[in-house]
């Protein structure tokens, strides 16, 4: 059975020895190390994708019940379609806390979402576009590779910045665009405008953009604060609470819930079973994220429990 | 409304009461399946639930109510289902116009919002009759979204604005007041100023008969707006109780109103800023 020490040694010999002792004094450090180890496992899994697939296939064939259960959990938990385009509405006052925004975006990138639309009504995030995009640009990728001595597969994040003026004002501009294109030549066109024409007009005036799959609201109320109407038609809207009390767990839960709902929609409409072909490397990666989240969030509780045990 | 609920209503009225509540009545078909009823029975139960909710709203002092009765997307359902839904809608519109209905009891003026030209002739005529019959009522308003989607509403508003600007321009042209580019204002520096503004668009929205909603309630726990009042919901509280529409009751409305009252100052501030 793999122990933390042997896993750690397997991955690299350059880090300090891990003391996985249940002593409260070094518990903080130990759990932090556990999280780091899990992060490294995730990187390894992403790198050695094929090997992982073979391991999990072997686990399914082996008589080991525990491994088989893990394999089933892996399939069940992650037969998912990913969130292709995520939008986040952030209350403008809370958006001033850029450190929180950076942290949130880092979590989103870790989960594997590739495209994010950031909205706040007053355009605070738009004004801070440069520092935010710099943080998540591929310029950082080579830096990280140099530190680790090998290329870590880092998910790139495409960011879009939207504010209130990209909503109603943009539609008014698009209306003027359509007017100039179809009416101002002197003849009144008989046919009605179509949705593709409207989408084209919005694109032409610089307020185009895809409709997000999922919209997360970070603010005191469940209210989309004027997110462009044309892009909100069938978007799932989830209220996450204020930005200051954001948590990794609730973010993962929201994305997970979205993908499960859409999995059910796809399978019930197609009449197929829950098990469909998945990318096992991504599946294993997400399990690692869930485990990491579990350790991260339970750290205090575990510490308290162990302190109580030690004192008895 | 019974004594208990009217007392609750009086207590709630101490705080700000929403002016306009909108409902997405989701879950009728699932309700019918759950209770092993025939297909149409879910919608009929839904109609009873709707009448109750409207009564509670008007008693509470909510002046405007909007309901999402039939989306343009719903035309894509099975033809038999569309047919039976239209039949039910026709039947219920006739019921609403009757003398003893809730509509006259509460002085409700009815509007039908949507691309009514997509409806069959009997339904369209019934809708027009209902609007005429209740045009004298002024205590409350019920907007029924029929053959409606927000994207269609926005397109319609854009179309109307363009047509209006063209007519204005043509009128000026015929008076000899302008040059070839009379359609577009402010040509002093050779720059063309846009002439269609947000106010013009809002004038031509189907939902212009009522102010923006304060609360949108969608039942069955779905978190999408499904192309409903997207333009008007910028500073609107979204409430999504997990119950099916025919199961909705007074307590859900009370919960929504309490949530609205808790967030009133925040939402009001956001409305001012926009």
TrEMBL record, chain A:
Keyword tags: Endoplasmic reticulum, Magnesium, Membrane, Transferase, Transmembrane, Transmembrane helix
Localization in the cell: Endoplasmic reticulum membrane
Main location group: endoplasmic reticulum
Domain of life, source organism: Eukaryota
Family according to the record: Belongs to the UPP synthase family.
Pathway assigned to this chain's UniProt record: Protein modification; protein glycosylation
EC number from the UniProt entry: 2.5.1.87
NAD is among the record's keywords: no
Enzyme's top EC category: transferase
Name of this chain's protein: ditrans,polycis-polyprenyl diphosphate synthase [(2E,6E)-farnesyldiphosphate specific]
InterPro entries: Nus1/NgBR, UPP_synth-like_sf
Cofactor names: Mg(2+)
Cellular-component GO terms for this entry: dehydrodolichyl diphosphate synthase complex; endoplasmic reticulum membrane
Entries under SUPFAM superfamilies matching the protein: Undecaprenyl diphosphate synthase
GO molecular function: ditrans,polycis-polyprenyl diphosphate synthase [(2E,6E)-farnesyl diphosphate specific] activity
Catalytic activity: n isopentenyl diphosphate + (2E,6E)-farnesyl diphosphate = a di-trans,poly-cis-polyprenyl diphosphate + n diphosphate
Automatic annotation (TrEMBL), chain B:
Keywords tagged on the record: Transferase
Domain of life: Eukaryota
Gene3D superfamilies hit by this protein: Decaprenyl diphosphate synthase-like
InterPro entries, alphabetized: UPP_synth-like (IPR001441), UPP_synth-like_CS (IPR018520), UPP_synth-like_sf (IPR036424)
The keyword Metal-binding belongs to this UniProt entry's keyword annotation: no
EC number: 2.5.1.-
Short name of one Pfam family: Prenyltransf
Family: Belongs to the UPP synthase family.
Protein name listed in UniProt: Alkyl transferase
Lineage: Eukaryota, Viridiplantae, Streptophyta, Embryophyta, Tracheophyta
């Amino acid at each position: 059975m793999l122990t933390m020490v042997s896993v750690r040694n397997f991955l690299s010999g350059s880090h300090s020895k891990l003391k996985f002792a249940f002593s409260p004094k070094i518990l903080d450090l130990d759990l932090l190390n556990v999280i780091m180890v899990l992060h490294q496992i995730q990187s390894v899994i992403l790198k050695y994708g094929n090997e992982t697939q073979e391991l999990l296939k072997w686990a399914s064939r082996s008589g080991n019940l525990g491994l088989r259960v893990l394999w089933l959990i892996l399939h069940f938990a992650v037969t998912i379609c990913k969130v292709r385009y995520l939008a986040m509405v952030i209350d403008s006052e809370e958006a001033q806390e850029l450190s929180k925004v950076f942290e949130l975006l880092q979590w989103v990138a870790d989960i594997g979402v590739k495209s994010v639309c950031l909205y706040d009504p007053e355009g605070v995030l738009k004004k801070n576009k440069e520092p935010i995009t710099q943080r998540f640009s591929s310029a950082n990728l080579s830096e990280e590779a140099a530190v680790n001595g090998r290329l870590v597969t880092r998910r790139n994040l495409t960011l879009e910045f939207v504010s209130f003026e990209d909503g109603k004002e943009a539609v008014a501009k698009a209306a003027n665009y359509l007017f100039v294109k179809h009416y101002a030549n002197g003849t009144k066109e008989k046919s009605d405008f179509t949705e593709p024409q409207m989408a084209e007009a919005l694109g032409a005036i610089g307020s185009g953009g895809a409709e997000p799959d999922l919209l997360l609201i970070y603010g005191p109320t469940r209210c989309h604060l004027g997110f462009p109407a044309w892009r909100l038609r069938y978007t799932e809207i989830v209220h996450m609470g204020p930005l200051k009390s954001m948590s990794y767990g609730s973010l993962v839960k929201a994305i997970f819930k979205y993908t499960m709902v859409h999995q059910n929609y796809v399978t019930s409409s197609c009449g197929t079973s829950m098990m469909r072909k998945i990318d096992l490397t991504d599946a294993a990666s997400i399990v690692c994220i869930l485990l990491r989240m579990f350790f991260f969030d339970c750290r205090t509780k575990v510490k308290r429990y162990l302190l109580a045990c030690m004192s008895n | 409304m019974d004594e208990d609920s009217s007392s609750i209503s009086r207590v709630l009225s101490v705080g700000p009461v929403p002016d306009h509540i909108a409902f997405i009545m989701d879950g009728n078909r699932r309700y019918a399946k759950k209770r092993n009823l025939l297909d149409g029975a879910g919608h009929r139960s839904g109609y009873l639930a709707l009448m109750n909710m409207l009564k509670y709203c008007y008693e509470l002092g909510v002046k405007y109510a909007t309901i999402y009765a039939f989306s343009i997307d719903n035309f894509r359902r099975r033809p038999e289902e569309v047919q039976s839904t239209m039949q039910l809608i026709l039947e219920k519109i006739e019921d609403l116009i009757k003398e003893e209905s809730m509509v006259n009891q509460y002085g409700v003026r009815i509007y039908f919002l949507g691309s009514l030209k997509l409806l069959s002739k009997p339904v369209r005529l019934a809708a027009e009759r209902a609007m005429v019959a209740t045009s004298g009522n002024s205590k409350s308003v019920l907007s029924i979204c029929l053959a409606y989607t927000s994207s269609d509403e926005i397109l319609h508003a854009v179309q109307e604005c363009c047509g209006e600007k063209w007519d204005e321009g043509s009128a000026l042209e015929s008076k000899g007041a302008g040059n070839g580019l009379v359609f577009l204002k402010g040509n002093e520096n050779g720059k063309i100023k846009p002439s269609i503004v947000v106010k013009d668009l809002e004038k031509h929205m189907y939902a212009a008969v009522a102010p923006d909603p304060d609360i949108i309630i969608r039942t069955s726990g779905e978190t999408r707006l499904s192309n409903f009042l997207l333009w008007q919901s910028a500073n609107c509280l979204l409430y999504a109780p997990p119950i099916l529409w025919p199961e909705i009751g007074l307590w859900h409305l009370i919960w929504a109103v309490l949530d609205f009252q808790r967030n009133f100052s925040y939402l009001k501030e956001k409305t001012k800023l926009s």
